[in-house]
Design brief:
Blueprint lengths: L1 H6 L28 H24 L19 H26 L24 E6 L5 E7 L8 E3 L6 E3 L8 H28 L9 H18 L12 H19 L28 H42 L2
Antiparallel strand pairs: 1-2, 3-4
Helix pairs in contact: 2-3, 2-5, 3-4, 3-5, 4-5, 4-6, 4-7, 6-7
Length: 332
């Protein structure tokens, strides 16, 4: 495990290489009726988040669920809404990519499955090679046709999980899964950040009201992240902390430009705080410039990397649980 941790800090791990597409289209655990159930889950999550995004946007800035806003366009000035939007993009890119991948590899699930029977595959040209991963109950993890490869390009199968990792330096992840991975890194860390920010610093239990809307933006989003983190088969890299950090930097630059252009929050001027703040006491380029700059540095260089590291810890737990489960099943 220590060797794996040390390898995380290799310079190449800033990028998206060394991983095959299949890591993003199958779950870590064994699911029956693969890949249909996994595809349905991805689309169900994407549709659910999209429906609620539309509903929230309809009601945003209107009493009694929100304070009166002068325009709905200002929904976009808050980082929590950026986070929710990124999470939706992640699920949609993942769902579509998974569907296309399995469609192109000619998967076919049998209408019934019995113990030891697993899945049925449609015929594949004999000239192709098949790499199949099965658990001890005969449930298939994946199947993908592959062209004949040289010795350097062979794939190494994890004996504990049935997943594979391409050890070739020439491994090229498809561009759409690079986008998925990017938004996974951004949205997972952002969901943690905005949820903690809202309930610890922003929400006032004496004056605030918990609604189904702010609960989705600052709670249900994190639930989706935690569930997905323990279901997906895609890897997590420590050095990818640069993605949420860059997203945070882009957001702060956006707010600075927004203020410089005369942008205000959506409320009427407050006699004490004015209306230049976006988050009282932490993001106000008009009245608390130095504080806001300090917060920006703290979020970009401390908070984002630390939260990303927490998610990497969840990834290691997920992999450990999978190894334990595989060892347990191998004994039966």
């Amino acid at each position: 495990m220590m060797d794996e941790f040390k390898r995380e800090f290799q310079r190449k791990n800033f990028g998206f290489g060394g991983v095959s597409d299949r890591s993003f289209v199958v779950p870590q655990a064994r699911w029956c009726f693969q890949p249909v159930t996994w595809i349905l889950y991805r689309f169900a999550a994407a549709i659910y988040l999209t429906v609620w995004w539309i509903v929230i946007l309809i009601y945003w800035g209107e009493p009694p669920y929100y304070k009166q806003a002068d325009t709905k366009a200002k929904w976009f000035i808050y980082v929590s809404n950026w986070s929710y939007l990124c999470l939706g993009i992640y699920f949609w890119t993942s769902a579509i990519g998974t569907l296309v991948y399995h469609k192109n590899t000619k998967f076919k699930v049998s209408s019934t499955i019995t113990a030891g029977e697993g899945l049925e595959l449609s015929p594949i040209d004999a000239k192709d090679q098949i790499t199949n991963g099965y658990d001890n109950h005969g449930h298939q993890i994946y199947a993908e046709p592959q062209e004949n490869n040289s010795h350097e390009d062979v794939e190494k199968q994890d004996s504990t999980t049935g997943m594979t990792e391409n050890t070739s330096s020439n491994t090229s992840l498809s561009w759409n899964f690079k986008v998925t991975w990017l938004f996974q890194n951004i949205s997972f860390t952002a969901a943690f950040f905005v949820t903690l920010l809202f309930w610890i610093l922003d929400f006032d239990p004496e004056t605030g009201t918990v609604t189904v809307f702010n609960l989705h933006i600052h709670g249900i989003n994190l639930l989706f992240v935690l569930v997905d983190q323990f279901l997906i088969g895609s890897p997590y890299r420590i050095l990818h902390f640069i993605h949420p950090s860059l997203m945070a930097l882009v957001y702060f630059i956006f707010t600075a430009i927004y203020y410089a252009a005369g942008g205000l929050n959506e409320y009427a001027p407050d006699e004490v705080n004015g209306n230049t703040y976006l988050y009282k006491g932490s993001l106000d380029w008009g009245r608390e410039t130095i504080t806001t700059a300090v917060v920006m540095v703290g979020v970009v260089f401390v908070a984002a990397p630390l939260l990303h590291l927490v998610l990497y810890g969840f990834y290691r737990i997920r992999r450990t649980l999978e190894r334990f489960e595989s060892c347990r099943m191998s004994r039966h």
